[in-house]
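Case 463 in the screening queue. Each case pairs one protein sequence with one candidate compound; here the compound is magnesium ion. For every case the pipeline is the same: read the inputs, emit a complex structure as tokens, and attach any notable structural observations.

Predict complex for case 463.
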Amino acid sequence: MIALTLGEIATITGGTLVNSDGTELVTGGVEYDSRKVGPGGLFVAFAGEKVDGHEFGPEVVEAGAAGVLGTRDAGVPGVVVEDQLAALAKLAQEALERLPELTVVGLTGSSGKTTTKDYIGQLLSRLGPTVAPAGSLNNELGFPYTVLQADEKTRFLVLEMGARGIGHIRYLTGIARPSIGVVLNVGAAHIGEFGSVEGTALAKGELVEALPATGVAVLNADDPLVAAMASRTGARVLLVGEAEGAGLRAEDVSVDGAGRASYVLRNGLDRGDVRLGVAGRHQVANTLAAAAVALTAGMAFADLVTALGEVGIVSGRRMDVFERADGVTVVDDSYNANPSSTAAALHALAAMGAGKRTTAVLGYMAELGEHEVPGHAEVGRLAAELGVDRLIAVAENARPILDGAAEVSGWRGTAHLAADQAAAIEILQDDLRADDVVLVKGSRYRTWDVADWLRRPEEVQPT
Ligand SMILES: Nc1ncnc2c1ncn2[C@@H]1O[C@H](COP(=O)(O)OP(=O)(O)OP(=O)(O)O)[C@@H](O)[C@H]1O
Ligand SMILES: [Mg+2]
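Case 463 output:
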């Protein structure tokens, strides 16, 4: 973070100084987890249901923190504000005002934001110091928190933007206005809150509306609702995808037996062979979006082609493929799930499973609203159509997955309903073979134990 005194922080946030003459200098990072606050850091204290962060004030200051930002006096130098999130937003705005040279990249979409943010981070790091922290920091807390990691040395700031409703992305762009904005896709994620994919598109499009005329909107040419956002921006539009109309295109896409895609990248007269090291055909779209950002930021085409082949998974539980000592291949995609990301993962499983036995352990997909039952059934149907050998639905609310699979005549796989994760682990434990490829996917914690057990069977015991 740029250096600020507690006095400046009080002025910027409209807060009140406590136990301080305002001269304490914040030189370290801003953290809301007391264990992460380092020397010269600013600790943002939240009063949670179980723990009140303000109580850690003395501890963090003892450990070297410059002060605490909270809603009450924590007994140490600090700034008291009415609302920590609003204060963080103001600090982030001010920080960016003081960093006019910084290139800000924002990206949104229903699936693949974190994955693609990590790719953009890896590519831009080759051009200069880049802030693109691992994880999914896309809300009113994580977003300003990310912005505040930039300082005078930073050249690129990559920001993930999440939307659970209309106006959310507009709020985020009010904190940090990107000059390069990327919209990946509009799928069924959080559809329960938006009501329809059109509603989702309306919300995601707020990103390109906020771009300056000198900016660049990177839009997925293969997603009609995203491509249509071209009319909602004054920025230059760069369409990316496999469609004819895309300015930056992937041609001749193929997927190898490890689920990794190769393609010919074309940008005008430039063309190069890209061989991805990350699994899943959907990574074509993600890497194309990241490539567009890198080109816009000044990366040479030949360097880009090489760099794309070297991007890897940074944030865990997203298409994290590993092979166990016993030969079993695991695809840990358990971070989150919706029908489109599950479809992408099932396609990857099928590609990786040629000549092997495939197992899909699928948990409940949250936030689908009235699309819940059809959404689960659709995923089950696809699993069966792709010929998954074993389909394990985890928990009663995931049962419609099995119902969907049962509709596919001629499917020869087996269907299991596991009452909970421990039961799913038992099914796997009883029958694992060296030629197995196992996909694990669900919304959040719902299948994490299964993935962790597959990774470290000796440490994670079925409960
Ligand atoms: N382009 C894509 N299309 C479909 N699924 C994708 C795509 N990219 C990534 N995924 C899958 O979507 C899931 C979520 O990925 P990721 O965390 O990158 O997305 P996100 O948009 O950041 O999600 P969140 O809304 O939880 O922040 C993972 O299972 C990942 O493999
Ligand atoms: Mg994310």
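Case 463 observations:
- The mean pLDDT is 95.
- The longest helix spans residues 84-97.
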